[in-house]
Amino acid sequence: MVDPAERVGQLPPFLGGAIRARIRDARERGVDVISLGIGDPDQPTPDHIVEALCRAARDPAHHVYPNDLRGAPAYRHALAAWYGRRFGVELDPDTEVISLIGSKEGNHHLALALLNPGDVALVPDPAYPVYESACVIAGAEVVRVPLHPDDDFLVDFETIDTDVADRAKVLWISYPNNPTAAVAPVAFFERAVAFARRHRLVVVHDNPYSEITFDGVYAPSILEVDGARDVAIEFTSFSKTYNMAGWRLGAAVGNPAVLSAVMQVKETADTCIFTALQAAAVAALEGPQDGIARTVEAYRRRRDLVVTGLRSALDLDVPTPQGTFYVWVPTPPGITGDEFAARLLDRAGVVVSPGIAYGQQGANSIRISLALDDARIAEAIERIAGARPSLLEPPAAG
Ligand SMILES: *Cc1c(COP(=O)(O)O)cnc(C)c1O
Questions:
Q1: Structural domains for the chain
Q2: What is the pTM of this model?
Q3: What spacing in Å lies between the alpha carbon of 107 and ligand 1's midpoint?
Q4: What is the mean pLDDT of the chain?
Q5: What is the H or E stretch that residue 329 is in?
Q6: CB of 358 closer than 6 A to ligand 1?
């Protein structure tokens, strides 16, 4: 008999799996499903990056175990240089940069590296579910910190109980934010760093959407704040910036002691990413960057389609996203996010994520992903407008 460890049963359900199952079921019933559920960039990786991988893959020097488990020096130097150009942040490539199999892996190894069983971790609500899962695997106690639309979904550090804050070892934050699409100004990161100093904890800034902002909004690195590297690390990723989600490529930067602890755990689990991938990453960072602007422009067009479409089709009070490729939509009065998502699938053939998947604060929201071509998004909005009466009707009593 297989008897999985208790932590397996404690994991929150994996959202992507549930959405994929819903899509499959509806398709089997013959529905032409439009999926706005999953956050996976739909546009291709730029050609010059693919070519760099192909060239590097042919080099036998890359076929052996990677020499440097922190990442090839060329990769770490290119990433440090990018941080300098992009954020004005100077990083020591030897001590302040490590490569990752994406930010997702980094979050898990970070939790294992910093949290003892029973330690407290602060995780916003709503949030990307991986932070909580990583804490559960590490046996840590998760305290959720509610985010409110009135605060632009920024963590309000004043409202965190002082005793809880003193006990906490790690605080997770992420802006531009999945799922709320909020972007935080530098002043917010200054408050986060001050909070971490006051309560002697580590701030983890998950920052995979730094390049996906609209209307000239600036998304900072937490490391722009003076003294941030004493208390903070940041995850960056190629998945969203360069449409490379399937490549599994990211990095952690910042506090050297935290990164060393992560490396000690990580070295027991993986032996660094394929060196040829790292060569492609260098090509991504140092090659033409115009693909980013095209990607962002596509998301902006689709954002406007969805925001204006939903406002007029359902009279919903949809805030305009400043970044990411999500729209965080409050549901019509009296209808939960779960119920609304089910109606959208049954009555319009449109799949969205119920907000509860990101935490209790998301109970009356849904998340719409913009990672689908404009025509399909326009069709989804048309179908939603056509189904208006049945989407808005009050829930059946009982
Ligand atoms: C997409 C996403 C990631 C995934 O990063 P990978 O580098 O692909 O593992 C991390 N954090 C958030 C909030 C995301 O939405």
A1: 6-44+291-392 (3.90.1150.10), 65-286 (3.40.640.10)
A2: 0.96
A3: 10
A4: 96
A5: strand 326-330
A6: no
